[in-house]
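Notes from the pairing session

We agreed to fold both candidates in a single pass and log them together. This is the raw record for the first candidate, unedited. Please don't reformat it; downstream parsing expects exactly this layout.

Candidate A
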Amino acid sequence: MSSRRRITALVITLAAVALVTLPWALFTSRADLSFGPHEAQYRITADSRLTVDFGPLGKLLVPAEDVIPLGLGVHVDIGEIPVSGESSDDERPAADPAKVEDPGGGAVDALGGDIASYASLFSAPQAQIDQVVEGLTQEILIRWALTVCIITGGLVGLALFLGPTRVDTIIRAFAGKELLGIGLVLVLVLTGLGAVVLNRPKPISADPAFEGTPLAGSQVTGRLGGIIDTAFGAVQDFADDNDAFYDDVLKTLRTQWNDRPISGNWTDRGLVPPAGVGAPAAGSGDGEGGAGEGRKGVTTFVYGSDIHCNIGMARVVGAVAGMSRADAYIDGGDISMTGTTAENYCLDVLDDELPEKLPRMMVKGNHDSMGTTQHAKARGWKVLEDSAAEMAGVRFFGAADPRRTVFGSGPQLETDLTADQYAQRLRDEACAADFDIMLIHDPAVGAPSLRSGCADYALSGHWHRRVGPENFGSGTRYSSSTTGGALANALTPGPLKMNAELSIIRVDNETKRPIDVQIITITPDKKVQIDPWVRFPEPRPLVGQPPVDEPGR
């Protein structure tokens, strides 16, 4: 047999195998993801519905003809809620001499994260949809490709085993019968699809309790029907209250934005204040003419920390990043509540709210996990892990918090070092690194680097109260308050229980040093306060410096 005929036979074989195995891969793939706070397994069906299976409690059946094409559906097997949170964390220094307990990660916070996770299915469903589409698509393509390769490889191996003579005999026996082969393949495919279609379940009997809600036309089966009305009503009310609260906040923010303080007092530094906020970095090619002219010497960062899965404040962060024309967003950690895989949606919602092409960077907090940072990297974030990275022309150095707060088992170390040992190692690494600004979650972990003169500037969070900008050791530190308004022993997600703060930091493109910071405060009564710019003090030399200790240590 000629090489041309062999190639043709191989191509036909590949096409036939691919066509036959596609339906099998489509309907047998499983994706282990999350559904709200639950672990969940997703699979494709052919019943034009979303089936959420709560096991012995029953099922929620949602019509999906207008959402999922080709008469396909999705079946979700709901699992348990992963262990998360902790009633208390290690005591740590606060902004004043008194010690406080760690605000976040307790049982109340864990419950709040669960409620917010359910509510996000209504108020921010796109993050969940993207996760499911990506997860199922990946599983289907992997299974399909492996199956095609295995079957085709097996056929090629069989051909090599039989030898050219026997293979030629077999091919001649089927010569001129290609249409018959194609017909047989189509019959197999259509028979399989027909069996699926014939086994379609009965039509959904719509529950009148869902009329006028996002679940209109849905049906509940089993014992779940006895509690779904109350549970759904509670989650819907939570989502509605959350959306209404932050709609009002965003309206107030946009109203006050044009009247915000524009420039700080820079005259004693010999600098000319820029025309406004949000200058592109020098040489970026942006900001030609108009409002951007004269601001190329400044890089603008929006800085948040300790958002603790407050998806409403994620909308505020995205709005400020857009209106300020920021060059990048940086996060000081604790994006999630306890760092479980089900909480990846916390980062997904924040990521979706930020301007699409805005560079973004984070460092792990003690309420995040290594899984959180891996997920962030998969979504295009730069993550500092005992490393330095450049963002908008400024070089940052940082490391993950060594702790992880886990409900039921106390703070756990994700490294072999305690927090104090980790701080000393970080100091040694900082002394050997070349960077402009340190980004670290806990100010206490970054303190040795500032004391030793190995870091000139450090940004952090963790204490849930603002500190600085102030001189510390021979450097300058700024610790942001909680961007999520995370109050101890209260539900962080939802309308605010305490003030939430977000910072805009301007950096001199020539010296790469922070110039000043503007703090935006959102209060529980929906007020927005945009403070005047506050200058970062210059770092001080070690000579003549008295010993500096953290308050409360």
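Candidate B (folded immediately after A)
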Amino acid sequence: MTTGKTELITIALADPIDSIIQQVRNAKAEHVDIFMPEGSISLQSRKTCDRLRETANREGIELTLYTSDPKVVKAALTCQMMVVEIEPAVVSTKAPAAPPAPAKPVVPASPEEDFLASLEGLPTASTTDRLQTSPSISKPIPTAAPSQPARSEIDDWADALDSLSVASTAGETGLRQHEQARGNDSWDFDSFNDLSDALSGDTASAAPARPRIRPEDIELTSDDMHRQDAKARRARAEQKRADEKAELKQQTAPKRNYPLWGMVILGAIAIIALLWLLFGNTLASGVTVVVRPAPTSGGQTYEDVRLNYQADSISEPSSAAIQGRLINVPISVSVRGTVITATEQPDQAATGILEVYNRNTQAYPIPANTRVRVLNPAGEEIIFLTQAETTIPAATGNFAGIVSGVGSLQIVASAGGTRYNMPASQDPVWTIEGYEGALFSINPEPIQGGTTALLKLPVESDWMPLLPQAVAQFRSAIPAQMQTVLQEGEVLADVEFLPNVDALTQDPSLYDIQTRPVPETDGGFELVVTANFQGLAVRGSFAEQLNRALPNALRIKDPSFSTDTTSIVRSQVRLDNSGASLLLATVEVAPKTAVGLPDSTKLKIADSIKGLTPAEALVQLEALRESGLIGDIVSVPEVERLPIDPAEINIQVQE
């Protein structure tokens, strides 16, 4: 794992590329500066430079090469590595004339002097052999005077190279922050360019051998650009979080902006006005609701008023028929229940052997599955069946008398259960059907093996309480299923379907009722109720056809009926179950009133249904009919909502 510090390593001439890579790894730093003497062949080829660069990328290490070897510079630039070319005097491979003198502690007045002083104290050619076995420059530091703390030449050299590395990757801003973090507040970028010139061997009087280092002159590799982009993205993210935090603080601060409240109120008023323009005009105006008058004293009820229905159109106004056709739809509903109490259920069937005696002179063959009857100890008649064809031999005679023919008959109970177990008996209590009087039988051994089991199987007492739920499901399922078989232009007539769903709870035999267990439950079962329902499909309005045909049917039933003096108050129509194309109606009539409904009653009706949807208005009118204020509801207009002004609702009474 690398740390955030910068390390300097010095490469010996004979160090192979593997040794250089290992030294870079051992540095365990985020930035590594490599100091290479001229003539080091390890990094003079592009192949070895590529290996070093790939290793550094994998380890997350930023590399900077410092060398005077032109071959190393060329190979590093080809591999897009950061390289700083220095003068040969800085890294010399020639032997010196004399050993170097010990360095004296100095206190540089500025970073430039500090760096130049460190260059003067670098090892000469006589120390090359020592450098080849040492991973970094090491030189004793003389003891300084107590008043002036000393720095080593290597420290000054490492600081200078560290500054160069930071400048090449982070620019002037990053380098300035780096120097300030080290406590060098008086640092400036021009002084650093002087250091660069000194490193290149330039003097103040001579013309610059290479341009001064400027942020815009630093050329980054693709890896450096990726790292700089990542740093820039992190900086932008931190700035964004700071901006959001400031904005949130500003939003949560208490404000008193009275003009804003005024704008909100005006906007709400505008929205209400827009909604009124869009939806307010959907309330119908000038609509008509048609009802029949309430029944009066002297009324009469007619039962089973006959109305025919036919597929052909009806043109005769005096006809008591309705145009329609019978439709049939099988409908099933299911309800779930649970068996609470387990009951005994037959399990295994009893078996045994009968001894059959024949006192006749002829043999009797008994086929398989012949029924054999007997009374069990409880007095119940039980049935057994023969398992195989058996012939009972004929009787024989001798001096002692008649010897009966005897045969064995294998029998099995017709059902499982313990009630079929019989004790051994010598009494001829068995009867073989078809051989009464000719053969008699006994069971010298017990008939046994019949067993029962306690099972949670649904019985009538379990599923009968579920029938009301099935009725409720049928009420919604029947109209929906009937709609699926209607032809184009047909509607479903408002008649009672067959069979009557209300009769399900009283007479379940009208329906097919089955139960089936629900897997992985303790006694759970599903009740499935199925019936073939019949309805009437008509063309056009069934109410209009009924208003025409019903008075004619009443005149057929009662010739004295007249619409001039009598009004139809209520009617209920059902299909006839005789199979004929017939409808039966129960009709309530009452004498006509001269005034119909008073205006005050009409206003009361209109006020009770103002602003309602047609469905809501029908519910309210039905409540008024139940109270006796009006009779049957003939029609309610198909609008979105009735007017909110009762004066715009016209209550019309149909006599």
